[in-house]
Write a structure and sequence with these properties.
Radius of gyration of chain A: 24 Å
Oligomer: heterodimer
Strand content of chain A: under 5%
Low-confidence stretches of chain B: 1-6, 23-29
Helix content of chain B: 40-55%
CATH superfamily of the largest domain in chain A: MetI-like
Largest sheet of chain A: 2 strands, antiparallel
Order of helices and strands of chain A: HEEHHHHHHHHHHH
Shape of chain A: globular
CATH topology of the largest domain in chain A: MetI-like fold
Order of helices and strands of chain B: HEHEHEHEHEHHEHEHEEHHEHHEH
Strand order of the largest sheet of chain A: 1-2
CATH class of the largest domain in chain A: Mainly Alpha
Structural class of chain B: alpha/beta
Structural class of chain A: mainly alpha
Mean pLDDT of chain B: 88
Number of domains of chain A: 2
Mean pLDDT of chain A: 89
Number of helices of chain A: 12
Distance between the termini of chain A: 53 Å
Number of domains of chain B: 2
Number of helices of chain B: 14
Largest sheet of chain B: 9 strands, mixed
Largest interface: A-B, 30 and 37 residues
Number of strands of chain A: 2
Radius of gyration of chain B: 24 Å
CATH topology of the largest domain in chain B: D-Maltodextrin-Binding Protein, domain 2
Helix content of chain A: over 70%
CATH architecture of the largest domain in chain B: 3-Layer(aba) Sandwich
CATH superfamily of the largest domain in chain B: Periplasmic binding protein-like II
């Protein structure tokens, strides 16, 4: 005789699979399958003279990347800038997130929207705006020359500095939102308790706020770091032809050289380094603060 | 909840999931649609104005992007039965590349009445030349005297008043080669010259437009560019003059190919025919300053003087060795990125 409880459980399993089915298949087809193809391509060979990919199984592309200082320098630049951007975003975002989280003003939602507002504009349009600001006759230089602070224009455009500022502008809202949502969950009473026990604001921050906000800090820094490692439009438009980061390099290999094997290898190296550093940082932080 | 209702809900959800998975493919009726892959900006605007306007009864859609991503897409679509473009605008060496990679349809000129007016050298087996110009030397007459050619321009003496455009890598290498005793089939002699210019402070710009801005602001005084662009910049009020180099005038040809898997070849041929029409060619010469590739296009004498080449200069027109450039392109790109730009 059929067991109604087991029957119902089997039915629920069918329902569950029908619910998650479409999303899983979408991800499998649109993300995992192309990644698998790309990995297979990264093991292929490339005939430069004919710009053609040939079937092979070789790790030559990966070896080429790590044995050429030109490419390892680009990887190092990317990691360095990503870490710097993440650190600056954290320092800038925390006070802002704290204020937004704690404010009782009726304009709170407006504040949140205004922080997110830069993201409404596409990366390319934003970069075009920075070009106007940073150009030799742009806003920054004209103002500084106007007040007599400098006599010749500063070279900001097409430099690493411009790229860093541009990426910070893109990533800051993500960091602010991650921190703000976590700080809102920390009861104000906990902070007031610390003050009432004689803690200075800095001590309160160090011993109460920071550890409690750590999950949000970790989430925000991971997000910011991943975005910075994979940045394309900002380094491409603001860095100019002499500045190279990993994503523009991958794009060039695929489009200008049609070297899919090498481009695929660089893409996987970028993905692995990003994931590796993210996981390592996560482990270190959680282990250090685990009580 | 009773068993009957649960069953009902499960079936409904399962059915919805199945529907999401297996949406029926929509039968596509034959459409009068032509998809043209082209650079954006002025080029696309002028194609719409001068060519698409002649295609009565057809819907002409422009897929606008730089050449490299469009080439990458053609390569990626190679195995598909139907691609996503009917016609692609490319420079002559890119057209050669596409043919080498087996992507370009061999053109059937009998399908296009206007093809009889095409200049013979613009009749490629794998594509059609649309416009041509020549690489000349560009300079600001307020800042320096007229150079005589490439050797005089790509010279470290200009320091940081020389501008080099990154996307014109191949033409800069040709010019440096011609200036240093090399040929269109041998770029090696020019490499040292380019590195010397870079060490002396030559500025590198990401695009033609950025170069124009720098010329306008006086940040640079000279460089190399096709004559047609210089004419456009003169029209825009930028103080610039051109000189046809004594070492030779490398030709720049821009044309169109038809991908082998173009979805609407009939539309593609109709568009190509419209592109070769007298009015389209004449208006392109007026609007963009490039020379027409059909013999029946009439160009006004004063315009001809500005965009065209004298008989003497025509003798110096040099066609590029697309085979050599294609074979060595990857190596040259590596040299350009690793050695030249890093200097």
């Amino acid at each position: 005789m059929p067991n109604p409880v087991v029957e119902r459980r089997r039915g629920e399993a069918w329902t569950a699979s029908a619910l998650i089915g479409p999303a899983t298949i979408f991800i499998a087809v649109c993300l995992l399958a192309p990644l698998a193809f790309l990995f297979r391509y990264s093991l292929n060979d490339f005939i430069a003279a004919k710009k053609m990919m040939v079937e092979a199984v070789t790790v030559a592309n990966y070896i080429k990347f790590f044995t050429d200082p030109y490419y390892t320098a680009i990887l190092w630049t990317t990691v360095r800038i990503a870490v710097l951007v993440t650190a600056v975003c954290l320092v800038l975002a925390f006070p802002l997130a704290y204020v937004v989280a704690r404010t009782q003003s009726r304009f709170k939602n407006l504040l949140i929207i205004s922080i997110v507002l830069p993201l409404f504009v596409g990366n390319s349009v934003r970069a075009a705006g920075w070009m106007v600001v940073f150009g030799s006759k742009g806003f920054v230089n004209s103002s500084l020359i106007g007040i007599g602070a400098i006599s010749t224009p500063l070279e900001i455009m097409f430099t690493e500095r411009a790229v860093i500022i541009g990426i910070i502008a893109v990533n800051l809202p993500f960091m602010v939102l991650s921190l703000q949502s976590v700080i809102e969950g920390i009861d104000r009473a906990v902070e007031e308790a610390a003050f009432s026990l004689g803690a200075s604001p800095i001590t309160m921050f160090r011993r109460v706020l920071w550890p409690l906000a750590l999950p949000g800090i970790i989430a925000g820094t991971i997000l910011c770091f991943i975005l910075a490692m994979n940045a394309y439009a900002t380094p491409f438009l603001l860095g100019g032809p002499l500045f190279k980061m990993m994503s523009p390099l991958i794009y060039n290999e695929f489009t200008q050289k049609t070297n899919w094997p090498f481009g695929g290898a660089i893409a996987f190296i970028l993905m692995t380094v990003t994931l590796g550093l993210t996981v390592a940082a996560n482990l270190i932080l959680t282990r250090r603060y685990a009580r | 909840m009773s068993n009957r209702i649960s069953l009902h809900r499960r079936t409904l959800l399962g059915g919805t999931a199945a529907l999401a998975l297996g949406a029926p493919s929509i039968a596509r009726a034959q459409e009068k649609k032509v998809i043209v892959g082209t650079w954006g900006g002025d080029y696309s605007r002028l194609l719409t104005k001068n060519v698409a306007s002649q295609m009565k009864g057809w819907e002409v859609i422009h897929s606008e992007e730089q050449a490299d991503p469009r080439k990458a897409k053609m390569l990626a679509e190679q195995k598909l039965r139907r691609g996503t473009s009917d016609v692609q605008g490319l420079s002559a060496n890119d057209m050669f590349d596409m043919n080498e990679q087996g992507l370009a349809e061999q053109i059937d000129y009998s399908k296009m009445p206007n093809a009889k007016n095409l200049i013979p050298s613009m009749k490629y087996k794998y594509g059609i030349g649309h416009i041509y110009s020549g690489k000349v030397v560009l300079y600001n007459p307020d800042m320096m005297a007229a150079p005589t050619g490439f050797a005089d321009t790509l010279d470290p003496k200009h320091g940081n008043k020389l501008g080099i455009i990154d996307i014109q890598r191949q033409y800069n290498m040709v010019a440096a080669a011609l200036a240093s005793g090399g040929t269109v089939s041998d770029f090696e002699p020019g490499k040292e010259r380019l590195i010397a210019c870079r060490k002396a402070g030559a500025r590198i710009y990401p695009s033609n437009e950025a170069f124009a801005q720098a010329l306008k602001s006086g940040e640079i005084a000279c460089g190399i560019m096709w004559k047609a662009r210089a004419v456009q910049w003169q029209n825009a009020g930028i103080k610039v003059e051109t000189v046809a180099p004594k070492e030779g005038v490398p030709m720049y040809v821009s044309g169109f190919v038809m991908p082998k898997n173009a979805p609407n070849k009939e539309g593609g041929y109709a568009w190509l025919d419209a592109m070769m029409s007298e009015s389209a060619q004449e208006n392109f010469a007026i609007d963009m300053g490039y020379n027409p590739t059909v013999t029946n296009a009439k160009v006004a004498p004063d315009l001809q003087k500005r965009i065209g080449f004298t008989d003497d200069e025509k003798k110096r027109l040099v066609d590029l060795d697309y085979g050599y450039m294609g074979k060595n392109d990857v190596a040259f790109q590596d040299w350009w990125n690793k050695s030249f730009k890093a200097s």
